[in-house]
């Protein structure tokens, strides 16, 4: 059985993302491990050492009680979506979120990490958005980030952002495997700042590879990469965007405001980050 890790901070954003975790688990026959990571308070005032153990005990108990209260809510979300048959276990960990996600992903052989993200508020990226992009970059499992305003829709159209390079082909295969599960169409999109003059243009090879599959290849010339992608998502009614993790700074850009086009505050479809 496959495993999905679901980091949560008990927020509405996380609870909304949990629906995607449940739907994915149902589609690929996976179990879900929910995970809450907390930190102990930093006590840096004088003569506090004798009280530290009491502070820590109270903090740990408070986190345990909060988590214990939240678990039934997650179960109720599963029941409301007729997905209460999915196996769900829960982990409460003292530590730092991203390293703990990396650790449990390796130890438990996690296949997917599903988490919510708030994107950006004004010109300042929020904490959860920052964490989501760091998890996408640093965690080796496939990461599915769910923006806060996403309302679950069946995944019927997937956009794969690529440069049609050979190193993207293994990632494409993973996207194709997921598309097969969802019975979804794939659009592969390349955005170029100028007409392609590189002799190592692998577009023709890609055409042969995707032949006889429900996949279309697109190449658009524009300097506004983020704007073109957001327009493509809207025009083609895309349900999920997938990309190879070497687009490191691209995640941050997609979660921020596109000032030039005055588009949405963030992408409003799930983002799938895949390592080779």
Automatic annotation (TrEMBL):
Source organism (scientific name): Flavobacterium gawalongense
Residue span(s) of domain UspA: 1-146
Gene3D superfamilies xref list: HUPs
Protein name: Universal stress protein
SUPFAM superfamilies: Adenine nucleotide alpha hydrolases-like
Cleaved signal peptide residues: none
Similarity annotation: Belongs to the universal stress protein A family.
Record InterPro entries: Rossmann-like_a/b/a_fold, Universal_stress_UspA, UspA
Pfam families given in the database record: Usp
């Amino acid at each position: 059985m496959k495993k999905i890790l679901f980091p949560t901070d008990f927020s509405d954003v996380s609870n909304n993302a949990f629906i995607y975790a449940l739907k994915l688990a149902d589609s690929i026959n996976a179990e879900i491990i929910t995970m809450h990571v907390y930190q102990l308070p930093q006590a840096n005032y004088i003569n506090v050492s004798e009280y530290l153990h009491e502070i820590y005990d109270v903090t740990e108990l408070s986190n345990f009680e909060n988590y214990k209260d939240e678990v039934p809510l997650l179960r109720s979300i599963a029941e409301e979506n007729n997905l209460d048959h999915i196996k769900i276990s829960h982990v409460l960990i003292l530590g730092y979120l991203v390293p703990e996600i990396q650790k449990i992903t390796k130890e438990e052989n996690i296949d997917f990490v599903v988490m919510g993200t708030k994107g950006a508020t004004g010109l300042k990226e929020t904490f959860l958005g920052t964490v989501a992009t760091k998890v996408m970059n640093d965690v080796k499992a496939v990461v599915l980030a769910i923006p806060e305003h996403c309302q679950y829709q069946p995944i019927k159209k997937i956009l794969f952002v690529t440069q049609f390079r050979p190193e993207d082909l293994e990632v494409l295969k993973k996207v194709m495997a997921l598309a097969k599960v969802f019975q979804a169409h794939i659009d592969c999109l390349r955005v170029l700042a100028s007409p392609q003059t590189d002799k190592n243009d692998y577009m023709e090879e890609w055409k042969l590879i995707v032949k006889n599959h429900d996949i279309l290849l697109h190449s658009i010339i524009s300097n506004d990469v983020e704007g073109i992608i957001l327009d493509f998502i809207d025009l083609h009614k895309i349900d999920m965007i997938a990309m190879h993790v070497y687009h490191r700074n691209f995640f941050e850009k997609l979660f921020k405001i596109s000032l030039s086009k005055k588009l949405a505050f963030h992408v409003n479809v799930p983002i799938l980050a895949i390592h080779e």
